[in-house]
Design goal:
162 residues, alpha/beta, 12% strand
Length: 162
């Protein structure tokens, strides 16, 4: 079966799939994967809608209500914790940044800080250097990231590929 994202089925055996359909499928797969592993503490999902600068309050309310309605009475309903809209055009712009982005970033940092994973000092230094660069250059090239890795004694081969 071929799926058309937000489109209409045009051939036999194809079907139309909306963004919400894809989201629900993704949440069901995650939930089912954790059930298979016998884990009782399911991961929580917060949905972040971007481009809120293009939506009015009524549009946001309708979208949120539709997602909540479609999640209602599903076996993974408790997985969804929040639905937030952000103006992603403000990301990385200091005081002009949408407060929702700042809150999400803070929540992610708090979550990551609770992970019990030993991190080699070289990677801590790598992250610190990248964070300091991010103040001036929010986006850096992969070749610049490789240069920082070399200075931090990190093998370029161990960097994630993009």
């Amino acid at each position: 079966i071929l799926w058309h994202h937000e489109g209409q089925a045009s051939k036999e055996g194809e079907m139309c799939v909306t963004t919400i359909d894809l989201l629900l499928q993704w949440m069901a797969v995650i939930h089912t994967s954790f059930l298979k592993d016998g884990l009782s503490n399911f991961p929580k999902v917060a949905i972040v809608g971007t481009h809120s600068d293009l939506l009015n309050a009524e549009d946001k309310k309708k979208i949120k209500a539709e997602i909540e309605f479609k999640c209602r009475d599903r076996h993974f309903e408790d997985v969804l914790t929040d639905i937030t809209f952000v103006d992603n055009t403000t990301a990385g712009k200091g005081e002009m940044e949408d407060q929702a982005i700042t809150d999400i970033r803070k929540g992610c940092q708090e979550f990551v800080s609770k992970l019990e994973v030993a991190t080699p000092t070289s990677w801590v230094l790598f992250r610190k250097v990248l964070s300091s660069i991010a103040g001036e250059h929010p986006v850096i090239s992969y070749s610049n990231a490789e240069a920082v890795a070399r200075v931090c004694n990190i093998s370029v081969k161990s960097l994630p590929s993009v």
